[in-house]
Amino acid sequence: MQLKYHMVTIEDLVPENHFLRKLEAALDLSFVYEETAHLYSRRYGRAPIDPVVMVKYLLLVFLYGIPSERQIEVRCADSNAFRWYLGIDLDERVPDHSTISQLRRRKPAFRKVFRRLFEEVVRQCVEKGLVSGRLAVTDSTHVKANASRASKQEVDALEEVGNYWERLDAYEEEGLEELKRQTGQRRAKRTKQVKKDKRRSHKKVSSTDPESGYMKRPGKPSGFYYLSHQTTDPDHGIITAVTVTPGDVHDSRPYLEQLEYVHKSVVPLQAAAADSAYDFPLAHRALEELGIDFFVVPQPAHDRTKAELKRDAFTYNEQRDVYLCPNGKELRRKRLYRSGSGLFWEYWAEKKDCGSCPLRQKCLNETDKAGARKLQDSYFKTVVQEHFSRRWEPDYREALKQRQIWCEGTFAAQKWGHNLTRLLRRGLEAAEDHCLLSAAALNLKRMIKHSV
Question: Which pLDDT score is estimated for 388?
Fold first, then answer.
């Protein structure tokens, strides 16, 4: 068999309009050297693989949906375009897949590069006019953890103080001052954290990946997962923020902090849209204070009162700020109640009125120790009602439509082509790296598409 000699270079083998050529021209990775300078010695040891090459190596995994680092080594070895993008010539060996594993094991601080990479891509999208802040849509998707069901065990659940609790503390103090102005009395400032609901005192964890969370939601698969919470700008589908939590964390927990980050550090927001999981009273108040319109699907109301006379039987008098019971008696605002689910005004009837009321059997339970009927209103009721008064307006419905299109569509694209289905590594930090790279890969494709 006679062989031919070809006088070509790797530059000749990559088409001029190839995506990776456009990516190389669009994305400046020089910041990687700044982020990793402290991780490498200039005097000792053998020369390391260029950190920019390592970032590109991983970026290819998520740009092309390659399911493992072993396979990226194979793909880079036989792909001229991949070699060209990495700067590896035809006669040079591509990095071994174990180099990635050793990098993560020996230099855990390297993972800061992935957050910086995502932020740099978002910054470029803002500069190119692909992110307007006109609307921010938010949702979460589950990503399967590398944990077996057989590793499940039950442990005590510890309540974390977090940003949500700190906000409620501030509003509780505000409400107590308001109550003092009305009644002349107030209780002492809270010094202990509100106890967690006893029904959630235990949770299931995995012994192989204890940082994952056991997810059990209607219509979702059950098992150990992480949640990728993403905020997207629907103008061109650019993901502006990514937060990763265990699978048993409620969607509302990272929501306000994520939106505030986008509003203050990425682009000022005019409006935000979300599904019913994000309809919690505190969100309405916090976004109102930021000047952000809030379009959210209302949660269905559940009246868990065991008495025959439900809340609908009571009439609210806005001028006097009292409720009138079916017997014409008043329920006055008495105190500010704090629970694990929020902050509430309590309206109480007089015990003497309930004691002689002909409707007592229908209004109170036999086990009711207080002997008087009470009702609860969210502390943030006014702003919630103001937002929902617009729910049938065209712009409100259009915002919810945009949320469905861009959140669900973006997650589908990431799961289909950018490795957002399952994790290969374990731990919350590894999950965050994975989700950030997936989001950065999709952003790069959309940025290049709309920049051409």
Answer: 94
